[in-house]
From TrEMBL:
This is Putative ABC transport system ATP-binding protein. Residues 2-208 form the ABC transporter domain. GO terms for molecular function: ATP binding; ATP hydrolysis activity; transmembrane transporter activity. The lineage of its organism: Bacteria, Pseudomonadati, Bacteroidota, Sphingobacteriia, Sphingobacteriales. GO terms for cellular component: plasma membrane. InterPro entries: AAA+_ATPase, ABC_transporter-like_ATP-bd, ABC_transporter-like_CS, ABC_transpr_LolD-like, MacB-like_ATP-bd, P-loop_NTPase. Keywords: ATP-binding, Nucleotide-binding, Transport. It comes from the Bacteria. Pfam families: ABC_tran.
Amino acid sequence: MISLKSVSHSYAGQKDIGFSDWQINDGEQWLLLGESGSGKTTLLHILTGILKPKQGEVNINDTSIYGLSSKDLDQFRGRNIGIIFQRPHLIKSLSISENLVLAQSFAKLPTDLKRVNAVLDSLGIENKKNAYPDELSQGQLQRVSIARAVINKPALLIADEPTSSLDDKNAKVVLDLLMQQSGANQATLVVATHDKRVKDAFNNTYELS
Ligand SMILES: Nc1ncnc2c1ncn2[C@@H]1O[C@H](COP(=O)(O)OP(=O)(O)OP(=O)(O)O)[C@@H](O)[C@H]1O
């Protein structure tokens, strides 16, 4: 379970952004909606342990994440939180499979090539495991981003604007993959977007105003 209690943040010289309390139960799939500038990225950073809010508490599975030391928080994030950014951040000099092994080692988990192969297979790109990022199409790279986010079986899977630059068909493909991967890995899914096309796919919506 993930909970957000009395959280607010303000950047230097700017007014407070308040976030209403939020409880996300295991396995739920949520849409985080809000206009540009409403604070979606700020909230994602708070939820993922990147940005300590000025006030309030964030708990993930009974761990108050901002109560952890920065070293423990790094490890906690690597093991419990998978993030899919709009553009994949992969290491170009490493193969796809090596990029995934790196994500295991960042989380201080043993190399598990069986898991790497299984995740790539579930995303339909097992044949690209020895290729380098430059050799893949944009759509394939996005699948690798999803693979890297789920490789350590995180409790929380977060995607930041995963569909806004895609056409209708590919937006649906990516959304289906996210839903399928969160189900297969029993991960809670939070998708932040201002893309109203994806609204119908979710039962739960947290809206920023
Ligand atoms: N590092 C920062 N320093 C100062 N102000 C910031 C910083 N990051 C964000 N802001 C401000 O905080 C507010 C919320 O920004 P945020 O990026 O969280 O919004 P968003 O909903 O993700 O927007 P978008 O959909 O355009 O990406 C905005 O007014 C923004 O200008």
